[in-house]
Amino acid sequence: MDKTKIISEADLTQINEMVAEYCQQKWPLIPLVQNIQNEFGYIPPQSIPIITKNLGLFASQVQGVISFYAQLYIEPRGRHVVRVCRGTACHVRGGKTILKLVKHHLGIEEGQTTPDLEYTLETVACIGVCALAPNIVVGDRVYGHLNPKKVEQLFKKVGE
Ligand code: FES
C-alpha cells in the first residue's frame, strides 16, 4: 500500500495553520502532533518540514518524539483498528487460530493496514477479559468467546 496518503494543498494549508497556532506555546510539539493526528488520523510526513521550520527543531528531534510514543503514527491507519489478543488465556483457547483467521479475512499481516484504509491489524498482550478468551477488540468494542464462525460473521458485520 502507498504509505504516503495524498495530502492536498488544502491539507498543507491546514497543517501550516495548526503549526502557527501552536508555535507560540512553551512546549508545543506533543500537543501539535497530537492535534495533527486527530485531524488526519496520522501525522503526514509532509508535516515534518513545516513543524521543524516553524518550531526551530531538527527533523530528527520531531521524528524522535513521534517514534517514542506508541500512540503516534506516521502512516495512515484503518478506520477500524483490529487488536487480536496474544495473552496466555487467549493463546491456550485458540488465539493463534483466531489471529490466523483474522489475517486471512483482512488479507494483511500484523502492523499492516488494508489498501482501502478500512482495517489496521495489531496484536496486544492481555486486554483484561481473559474469562471471555479468545478475544479481539475492534475499535473500542471487545468480541469474546471467538471461534472461526464468529470471526467470519464479525468481519461481514463490521465491513457493512
Ligand atoms: S489473555 Fe486475552 S484477554 Fe487476557
Summarize the model shown.
By secondary structure, the chain is of the alpha+beta class.
Commentary on this structure:
- A four-stranded mixed sheet has the order 2-1-3-4, with helices on one face.
- The protein contains six helices and four strands, in the order ααααβαβββα.
- It is an alpha+beta fold and 160 residues long.
- The two termini are 22 Å apart.
- Residues 85, 87-90, 126-130, 133, 135 line the site of FE2/S2 (inorganic) cluster (FES).
- FE2/S2 (inorganic) cluster (FES) is lined by residues 85, 87-90, 126-130, 133, 135.
Reconstruct the topology from this structure:
Layout: H1 9-22, H2 29-40, H3 47-55, H4 59-68, E1 80-85, H5 88-106, E2 119-124, E3 136-138, E4 141-143, H6 148-158
Parallel strand pairs: 1-2
Antiparallel strand pairs: 1-3, 3-4
Helix pairs in contact: 1-2, 1-3, 5-6
The site of FE2/S2 (inorganic) cluster (FES) has 12 residues, from helix 5.
Structural features:
160 residues; 6 helices; 4 strands
Structural class: alpha+beta
N-to-C span:
22 Å
Write out the strand line-up for the largest beta sheet, numbering strands in chain order.
Answer: 2-1-3-4
What is Rg?
19 Å
Number of helices in the DSSP assignment:
6
Judging from the principal axes of the Cα atoms, what is the shape? Answer: elongated
